[in-house]
Predict the structure.
Amino acid sequence: IDTVFHMGACSSTTESDADYLVENNYRYTQRIGLWWEARKEKVRFIYASSAATYGGGEHGYKDEEHGLQSLRPLNMYGYSKQMFDIYARKKGWLNSAVGLKFFNVFGPNENHKGDMRSVINKAFPTVCTEEKMVLFKSHRPDYHDGEQLRDFVYVKDAVEMALFFMDHPSVGGIYNIGTGKARSWNDVANAIFTATGKPPRIEYVSMPESIREKYQYYTQADLGKLRKAGCAHECMTLEQAIEDYVCNYLSNDLFLADT
């Protein structure tokens, strides 16, 4: 069975134009009829959802379709993804199609994402030239500065997990794509310093007020459903992934930019 991956979207978590997000992340797939064309041509349909749909995590991070309605995203991007998940379930598409809830993906070939590229990508030049990394302070008493937690997943691992569904056409539904392990931003910074051979130096700055109420302090993919479906892929550790990204990609990009 052939497969179509529908991964295009406006991925800006700070975009405030709700109509623009709904048009690009929800109505576009409906209007051009990707699902219907895929079904007609007997093509496997796999689309990108997002961990942003989980909001503050008050309902946990289980990727069960019956719990979709209870989730409360913190931003319009998350809502636009949530809308399509609910629509796909209502239409019965998830019996055969797959929605992938990607957590914090980072890795090669993300430069085109602009401000939405990973912090690792954005921080690398500053670590190399100024030997420091800047992180947001915490504005919650239960988290120290830099100890906000995210499920960071390397793009190579995300691809391997996505390809599992291409190879198993009988599996449908919504699935988390992450490592299943929450790590701190301080862990990210220390891994970058280690990979570049620089001594750790982290500066903390106040988080812009415009995003403070919409910031996820903790995400961690529940991989129980993915494992039950048969996907046994084990992700690289955060340190292994950042070392690969820095040494084999970002360092080369910096070298090419300087020549």
